[in-house]
Amino acid sequence: xxxxxxxxxxxxxxxxxxxxxxxxxxxxxxxxxxxxxxxxxxxxxxxxxxxxxxxxxxxxxxxxxxxxxxxxxxxxxxxxxxxxxxxxxxxxxxxxxxxxxxxxxxxxxxxxxxxxxxxxxxxxxxxxxxxxxxxxxxxxxxxxxxxxxxxxxxxxxxxxxxxxxxxxxxxxxxxxxxxxxxxxxxxxxxxxxxxxxxxxxxxxx
Length: 205
Prior knowledge:
Helix content is 41%, strand content 20%. By secondary structure, it is α+β, with helices and mostly antiparallel strands.
């Protein structure tokens, strides 16, 4: 009797182990898909954080430079005073060495706004913003920016720096690219005050 009971218990345990193995093998592809997706998303998030930092550094620098100054035609970043030459230099330096903006598809868009009484009174250089590589225009209209402002705030000027970066998936697995475009266009922006584009007061105002 004892031997029969042991044989039954042993057979039951072997059956449970076999069932667990089958269940694991069935779930393994799903687990691998989820793990690879998390890894790819981790790479993407790392790049996104880098372009956020690049936009922030560019906007912080742009806050202290006059966007209305004419081009001095000095191509050297260390000697030029031209706003639209200096800001891209700062952004490029902030992104290196991990990210290099590809002139064939990536872009940097810069806009300057005059704001009076919570209302955007002017936008420079135009409604689309200044584009480094002419691939993208600003994702923000003057109305979008105005909606972010406090109507009771004093007259001011602001600069908006936007980075558009095409992230090529590192793993590039077909079960991910089947649902998500490759490359993924990452967009980051930062807004900073800039007194150089503050609206001019009217006489007696």
